[in-house]
Amino acid sequence: MSASRLEAFTDGVIAIIITIMVLEIRVPHGSDLASLEADMPVLSAYVLSYVNVGIFWNNHHHMLHVTERVNGKVLWANLALLFWLSLVPFVIRWINDTGFTALPTAAYGIVLVGAAVSYQMLEHQI
C-alpha cells in the first residue's frame, strides 16, 4: 500500500474527529458574554483537544511525507493511533457532563497518553 492512501484515510478520520468535537459544544442561550462564560471550561477543553489532535495530524503528515510504502505493522500502529484519537470527543463530552470530576479528567489524560504511545509505535514501525 502506498503512504498516500494511509495519509488520506487518516486525514478523513481526523476530520471526522474534529467535526464531532465541535458538534459537542453547546451554543449559549444568551447573547452576552456572561452566557458564554459558563461554557468556558468546555471551550478550553475543545481548544486544548483541537491543538493536540492537530499536532498529531501535522506530525503524521510529515512522517508519511518521507515514507514510500507501508506494511501491515504500520497499518495497525496507525489504527491504534486513530483509535485513541477517536476517543477524544467521548472524553470531552464526559468531562463536560460531569463538571471536570476526577475520573473523566483522568480518562482524558489516559487517552492522550494512549495516542502518544501509539504514535511512537507508528514512528518505530516506519
Task: Outline the secondary-structure elements.
Elements: H1 3-23, H2 33-37, H3 40-65, H4 72-86, H5 88-98, H6 102-125
Explain this structure.
The protein is mainly alpha-helical. The protein has one domain. Helix content is 81%, strand content 0%. α3 runs parallel beside α6. The protein is elongated, with a radius of gyration of 16 Å. The two termini are 13 Å apart. The model has no long low-confidence stretch (mean pLDDT 94).
Provide tags for this entry:
mainly alpha, 126 residues
Q: Can you count the helices?
A: 6
Helix/sheet category: mainly alpha
Note the main sheet.
none
The count of domains is: 1
- Note the overall shape: elongated
Short structural summary:
The protein has 126 residues and is an all-alpha fold. It contains six helices and no strands. The protein is elongated, with a radius of gyration of 16 Å.
